[in-house]
Amino acid sequence: RLQAETRGELTSLVEEMISNQKVVKAFGYEKEAQARFEEINARLQKHGLSATFFSSTTNPATRFVNGLVFTSAGIAGALLAISGRISVGQLSAVLSYANQYTKPFNEISGVVTELQGAFASAARVFEIIDQEPETPDAPGAVELTEADGSVSFRDVDFSYSPDVELIKNLDLTVRPGQRIAIVGPTGSGKTTLMNLLMRFYDVDAGEITVSGHPIKEVKRDSLRSMFGMVLQDTWLKSGTIRENIAYGRPDATFEEIVEVAKAAHAHGFIMRLSQGYDTPVSEEGENISQGEKQLLSIARVMLTLPPMLILDEATSSIDTRTEIRIQKAFEKMMEGRTSFIVAHRLSTIREADLILVMNKGKIVEQGTHDELLKKGGFYADLYNSQFER
Ligand SMILES: Nc1ncnc2c1ncn2[C@@H]1O[C@H](COP(=O)(O)OP(=O)(O)O)[C@@H](O)[C@H]1O
Ligand SMILES: [Mg+2]
Q1: Is residue 314 part of a domain?
Q2: CB 190 less than 6 A from any atom of ligand 1
Q3: What is the pLDDT of residues 23-80, one digit of tens each?
Q4: Do residue 302 and residue 186 come from a single domain?
Q5: 258 and 373 share a domain?
Q6: What residue ranges in 103-261 does DSSP mark as E strands?
Q7: Is any atom of ligand 1 closer than 6 Å to the C-beta of 164?
């Protein structure tokens, strides 16, 4: 069992290192990876050795016992034959049966070893199956079919692990159609706030409502379908460019797809690909740059146009010139939609109806650009030191 566990550990290490090869190389982690591999391998060798030793002693041991039984049966039979109570033919028949009769026992000991291995593997499989991915929807959960775009947070507490406090007593009211910019240093909880809103995580205390419905009483899928999301780490599925853009609306016509691709300034680079819109995107998306992936996910959201938008550093991998051009399409997309924008660039922030300034899991200031600048607090400091103008 230890052997199987250690082998599992080794497999996961190898998989992690291979699937993240670039990162491993970029950060010069090869040496550590090698050392970790050798350490686990040494343990595997040790456990493997004792397991093999154990299983190889059982086989000779059974065979020794079998031999002993066979010999004593032979001797006893021979004595009986000499004294004339059984014939030599009967004796040889009995002995050959006795020989066959021991074979299954040898096989059973082999099966037992295999079973042990199987149980250890099964335990790992069940561990994964048993991991509850998310708490199921509440019994009376309603389907959210439309949303006016109002959002509120009431006294929300949240932390990823109980011993690291993150969000505490957070209150926020967003009216339909407002544009909310969220700014703050890295790690201040901007993405976490979005995760809570989409209910990727449940709050520890307090309540979040969307369109007046507490999100705990709404079906997750329907909640998420109300949001269009463009994130910093874009995600593409394997399939063609066209399928990727039409991800949220598989019934979209080709004309519609081209239209949104143009709006997202993705049309140009798509046409330069060897097979245009039918170019396959590999799982890793190696043939497409990070910025181009972001353009694709922007096009994807533009096609579905849900009532609320979340743009979490949506343009972080896009050059400034393209971004300025996309901005127009964004403007159009955001009209009449509640949008949350985690942004770095001042132009985006300045036009927001409400700026949330976050630090260490708290909204430390909120207001418009002018109000916050006048206040001369955290935002003013950030403004003077950080934003790209
Ligand atoms: N999935 C997670 N599990 C545990 N901690 C996390 C997770 N995601 C983020 N954190 C931690 O929560 C804090 C806030 O992160 P995040 O909301 O991503 O910040 P921001 O988006 O403002 O840069 C950070 O300290 C981060 O390390
Ligand atoms: Mg973030």
Answers
A1: yes
A2: yes
A3: 676 667 777 788 888 888 888 888 888 888 877 777 777 778 878 888 888 888 888 8
A4: yes
A5: yes
A6: 151-158, 167-174, 179-183, 205-210, 213-214, 227-230, 239-240
A7: no
